Amino acid sequence: MERYEGIGASNGLVLGPALVWYKPSLSVGRRRCELSEVKGELEKLDAALDLTREELKGLRSQLHGHLGEDHARILDAQILLLDDEDLLTATRRAIEKELLTAASAFAQAMGEALVPLHLSQEGLFRERIEDFRDVEQRVLHALRGGADLRPELVKPSIIVASELSPSDTASLDPSLILGFCIDEGGPTSHTAIIARSLGVPCVVNLRHLSHRVQTDDILMVDGTSGQVVVNPEEAVRKRFAQRVKRRRQAEEKLRSLRDMPAVTPDGHRVELAANVELPVEIPLAMRNGADGVGLLRTEYFYFQKGQLPNEEEQLAAYREVLHRTEGKPVIFRVLDVGGDKLLSAMGGYREYNPFLGWRGVRYLLSNPDLLCVQLRALYRASVEGPLKIMIPMVSDVGELRQVKEIAVHCLDQLREEGHPFQEDIEMGIMVETPSAVAMADELARECDFFSIGTNDLTQYIMAVDRTNARVAHLHRPSHPAVLRSIQRTIDAAHDAGIWCGLCGEMGGNPSLAVLLMGMGIDEISTNAAAVPMVKKAIRSVAYSTAQQWVKDTLALSTADEVDHYLKIRAQRGLRDLLLENHEGSSGATGEES
Ligand code: PEP
Ligand code: MG
Known about the structure:
Elements: E1 2-5, E2 7-10, E3 13-21, H1 38-67, H2 69-73, H3 76-81, H4 85-98, H5 102-119, H6 123-143, E4 157-161, H7 166-170, E5 177-182, H8 190-198, E6 202-204, H9 209-212, E7 218-222, E8 227-230, H10 234-255, E9 271-276, H11 282-287, E10 293-297, H12 299-303, H13 311-324, E11 330-333, H14 360-366, H15 368-381, E12 387-391, H16 397-417, E13 427-431, H17 434-438, H18 440-445, E14 449-452, H19 454-462, H20 480-495, E15 499-502, H21 510-519, E16 523-527, H22 531-540, H23 543-554, H24 559-573, H25 575-585
Helix pairs in contact: 1-6, 4-5, 5-6, 10-25, 13-15, 15-16, 21-22, 21-23, 24-25
């Protein structure tokens, strides 16, 4: 029995056989051909490109059938690459001028095309590199007349891989996927997003797991804690199987709350919304009874194709979101790049402290045209359904004023051009910097709502990099310093007569959600899978009780004290939920920590 620790990227527990998806990696040296063979090599190249194009198109339609157009579109970037003029010209030139074989020439041209991506090798760029590599491998295979690269998924299995490209995922039958364990990647990788939309557990960043596991080994996967156990002992396996069963039963029960509001037994109502990264996650949010989308991260639209989407493309995408949310409100956050999310348009710009650098609204204000295109698309989409606009990473009142000026300018333009839009669209800000908390009273006077981003707020208040595993234990939104900042922000919002929500991950924790409710939060937006559990928590504890929890916890000194307090208090009202929650944090073996 071996244990591995990664990053939980999609919640849930699963016990089942592994399917190790090993992708043969073809490498070609600098092989030369004779001058007389050049024509034949050029023909071979064209045939291989045609074959690969057909293969990818086939996978695209398979993906469309399995997961919908959002996921299918992800393959477009790879299909487009096969027609990339620069790439093909470089390959043909290498065949004709350097007398390289088609395979060597293509690999060389690919290597050159990858240089700029390697130079800016961070976050989402790495996924672009995977796209390139995948296309390269497919073309090299086709040039060898090679066999199909698809894994054999013939029974329900947990997919174990070093990394999975969108086209790999496309070839898998989702009804047979029990979960994913991936060596590389982060919670925003394509596989993690697919896992969340399928509702199966996923653990990423498992380093060398795929080399240590064999197909049909039994795995225990905890997508919340990020723990994976390989070939567990019989007793451990049995205990885990019971947990899986209990969790399934609990989920069944929670589903019955779908159409009920998040209201406390003494009548206090909280809006309960879902965070969405990909529109394909919206149906799960609706099925789970979310009141709307409290955070739609629009970065996805920008990263999807590897190029900036124009106004019409964005308009179409936002309209689609509004159709899927069935008339429920959606808060679109304008582009929040920087930090760990880099845009190719940033030109591979590197920073020593990216989280303190060119991020969110700072980036937008230095690219007002980019912001204007997005705002115009959002305003135009507003006639399709209720939407609100949210500004990320605000740290200064002046930033908000500048965005509002740009918004007024965009609205004037739209009016002049005769485009219809909804008047009085609410514009709010993310409160996720300590300066925004300190200035919350001033900011509240100049915007329509707040949404507290505790993922970043915790990072900045505690001075803890949210992506650094070594200090992850210090990234605790239950720290009194964070809780006091939240309370202060909520109070400032209410004093100014605006509403205050929260969209950080902490809102998905039932006892913390109750605490937030006691603080007077108006809306909680969390991942779609957590919505039923949070709803149940709010429906289980009286508002007056939650207010007492707040009074008590705000007087405590450490996160440990707060967590201990909540554990004890929640043992009554939230017993069923917390049983599962605490087991989740005790890891894949289900042993108490
Ligand atoms: C946050 O910071 O809490 C948040 C919701 O935004 P993101 O995680 O996208 O930075
Ligand atoms: Mg944030």
